[in-house]
Amino acid sequence: MAQPLRVLRKEWVFAYLLLTPLFVLLSAFAIVPTFYTFWSSLYSKGTARRPAQFIGLDNYDAMLADPTFWLVLKNNLWYAAIVIPVSMALALLMALWANRAMSMRAWVRCAYFTPTMLPMIAAANLWLFFYTPDLGLLDQITALFGVASINWLGQPNTALGAVMVVTIWKEAGFFMIFYLAALQTIPPDLRDAARLEGASRWQYGRRVLWPLLAPTTLFILINALINSVKLVDHLFILTKGGPNNASKLMLYWIWETAFAYMDTPSAAVLTVVLLLGLGLVAAFQFRYAERRVHYQ
């Protein structure tokens, strides 16, 4: 009995030794900064003459009373609510098309994936040319039909939508790769069996194909939710959050608060709120979504 316990203890020691580098890196770049951010959010903004003081939850009260916070939060919710389903639906359609037996299939897949390979800054500059009033490609096309020039990025009612289009164009090809890989793992015999049973294409997609794609869909959904608060590179090029905060998103506002306004405590408060939101996403994944997805 003593011998198995000794072997088990050695395995535990080896396991902890193997986990030590990961724990050190996770603590240095995730756990410790998270606690430091929360602690910083409890202090006032310090200056050279007036050091920061502990003020508790006053910064959180100020954030809730700030109308800009609710505007940016609404922008981000609309951004996620539109970009995520549209980009995932387009990715699935492109994957279904690229998975078909047709000529030049490799070129089709490459064309769908090309936007993903572009850096976001390069993609934003490309779309900045498309959106330029009078000279941009969109206005050149609409002018053929007698439509007046539109300042897509300079109007509050179109700025956020224009930013969404860039993100969808950029992300759909990336998500397509995962759907395409999942489709190629589904045996063709399932489709043949469904046809023999008299199932239509819609019934096969709803009853067979979609359940088999559920793990991939969940993986893409979680990544898309994270990207909805992370992909803000194009805001620096396209709108810088304007006009009048109409296209400002959470992460961009955190950066602006911390480095443009030099208000570190307020930026820490916003970061804590963002981390709580991502924590709710993780809880949804592990407590609800994982139970409804079959991996075999």
From TrEMBL:
Q: Which Pfam families match?
A: BPD_transp_1 (PF00528)
Task: State which residue ranges cross the membrane.
Answer: 12-36, 77-98, 110-130, 159-181, 208-226, 267-286
Can the keyword Cell membrane be found in this entry's annotation? yes
Query: Entry's PANTHER family?
Result: ABC TRANSPORTER PERMEASE PROTEIN (PTHR30193), INNER MEMBRANE ABC TRANSPORTER PERMEASE PROTEIN YCJO (PTHR30193:SF37)
Q: Which UniProt keywords apply?
A: Cell membrane, Membrane, Transmembrane, Transmembrane helix, Transport
- Which family does this protein fall into? Belongs to the binding-protein-dependent transport system permease family.
* Topological category with respect to the lipid bilayer: Multi-pass membrane protein
Q: Which InterPro entries match?
A: ABC_transporter_permease (IPR051393), MetI-like (IPR000515), MetI-like_sf (IPR035906)
Where does this polypeptide localize?
Cell membrane
Q: What is this protein called?
A: Sugar ABC transporter permease
Limits of the ABC transmembrane type-1 domain: 73-282
